[in-house]
From TrEMBL:
It comes from Antrodiella citrinella. It comes from the Eukaryota. One of its GO terms (molecular function) is phosphatidylserine decarboxylase activity. InterPro entries: PS_Dcarbxylase (IPR003817), PsiD-like (IPR022237). This is L-tryptophan decarboxylase PsiD-like domain-containing protein. Residues 44-166 form the L-tryptophan decarboxylase PsiD-like domain. Pfam families: PS_Dcarbxylase (PF02666), PSDC (PF12588). One of its GO terms (cellular component) is mitochondrion. Keywords: Decarboxylase, Lyase. One of its GO terms (biological process) is phosphatidylethanolamine biosynthetic process.
Length: 423
């Protein structure tokens, strides 16, 4: 029996708090930290480069000015200079588990309002803006693989081994490879903690010898199943239909999947972030696709006027954090992502593709297989670093595949679970 996902006080996937009241105090604490070092200039040179880009390009200056001007009064981030000041603080921090409030994507927490404006849509589709964002995220990544980032791997109230986090990730020592008696439980960095391994036997591969079954590549929650996927579609409109050639970066193998099936599921910030082969077969191609970082679904812009980050506890939160939920399918076509094409040993499956899609600042994908490698179901094929968002399994039109009723939309799916059968 599948365990069905229930909405709680976090956005789906535990990347951000669902209640806006939890975001504003988090921002205020970082503003206080920035104020304490006021007059010292930016700590990270890339933030000054970002400011120079905004102020020296008239169109970008207009866009960043308009996106903040469109926000309602009371928004905690009032202009691009406040935004940059907050970024400068965040680049020297690892995500904390603050009193049961997870802000695993802190840059997004700052940009939720601006992302949800017409000006923001234009700016976050701008190549020069994406280039400086990529450079900025590179600086943050260097910190997250350093030993300094382990400071959040503690048992105090804001630590990832503290009481609140232990309630969200139960039985950590028994579930994941770690050393309970070592400092930081043996992890060398935040990223080392994030890409932690399951202990042997924690997730068994269901029906490993049955090649008619497809297994889950990740530890996920089902987002969408769509058949008869079109080569090109208007993926930026309401409903976000998949545009296959866009998803597959117009790869030469992409036409084989026109009219086929896409099964999409997203990852939780609190769980496991490695990918595993869903079928037995041979890796025929891998592709790393550069993309956007904070470009989100355009239909969400209609709700911008109701974005209220200062919502009080007990009030119904506005829709802005749900922007990330509604954009899961949209970003498969534009965000940084990787493609792993596998030719299944079962001819009824044939060629299929795994897509790992980065979300906002967690857009670092690592492929750990190469062309020609043979994989068995359950073999590791890659991972997300620093976070991860969503994944897709793509099948050809000729693949007669039926997905298990145990895992409908909204259901949690363990990695290695048998999710579909081919005839």
């Amino acid at each position: 029996m599948a365990h069905h996902f229930q909405l709680d006080n976090h956005i789906r996937g535990h990347w951000l708090p669902r209640n806006h009241a939890d975001i504003k105090p988090w921002i205020d604490r970082r503003l206080k930290k920035a104020h304490e070092r006021k007059g010292e200039g930016y700590v990270h040179h890339v933030i000054q480069e970002f400011q120079d880009l905004i102020e020296r390009d008239a169109d970008i200056y207009l866009g960043f000015t308009q996106m903040f001007a469109a926000l309602p009064s009371g928004s905690p981030v009032t202009d691009y200079k406040v935004m940059l000041t907050l970024f400068d603080v965040i680049l020297g921090e690892a995500p904390q588990f603050e009193e049961s409030t997870v802000v695993a994507i802190p840059i997004t927490a700052i940009l939720l309002g601006p992302m949800n404006t017409q000006a923001g849509y234009l700016m976050f589709s701008n190549d020069r803006v994406n280039a400086i964002i990529k450079k900025m995220l590179g600086v943050w990544c260097k910190f997250l693989v350093s030993s300094a980032s382990r400071s959040v791997l503690t048992e105090d109230a804001n630590g990832w081994f503290g009481p609140a986090a232990s309630g969200a990730i139960p039985n950590f020592n028994q579930t994941f490879v770690c050393d309970p008696d070592a400092p930081y439980r043996g992890f060398t960095s935040w990223d080392d903690f994030f890409v932690r391994l399951f202990r042997p036997g924690v997730r068994t591969i269901e029906f490993p010898e049955d090649t008619s079954l497809v297994n889950s590549a990740c530890e996920v929650t089902v987002f969408r199943l769509q058949r008869n996927v079109q080569a090109r579609d208007q993926f930026w409109i309401k409903g976000h239909p998949y545009s296959l050639l866009q998803m597959l970066h117009s790869d030469e193998l992409a036409p084989q999947f026109i009219g086929g099936t896409v099964w999409q599921a997203f990852l939780s910030a609190l769980n496991y972030h490695r990918w595993h082969a869903p079928v037995d077969g041979r890796v025929v191609k891998t592709v790393m696709v550069p993309g956007t970082y904070y470009l989100q679904a355009i239909d969400a812009l209609e709700v911008n006027q109701t974005y209220t980050p200062h919502t009080k506890l007990g009030e119904t939160p506005g829709p802005a954090p749900d922007l990330l939920d509604r954009s899961q399918d949209f970003i498969t076509q534009l965000a940084a992502r990787c493609l792993i094409f596998i030719e299944s040993d079962n001819p009824a499956i044939g060629l299929m593709c795994f897509i790992g899609v980065g979300m906002v600042e967690v857009s670092t994908c690592e492929i750990t297989v190469k062309v020609g490698d043979r994989v068995k179901k359950g073999d590791e094929i890659g991972m997300f670093h620093f976070g991860g968002s969503t994944s897709c399994l793509v099948f050809r039109m000729d693949t007669n595949i039926t997905f298990s009723s145990d895992y409908p939309v909204g259901a949690k799916v363990p990695v290695h679970a048998a999710i579909a059968k081919v005839e």
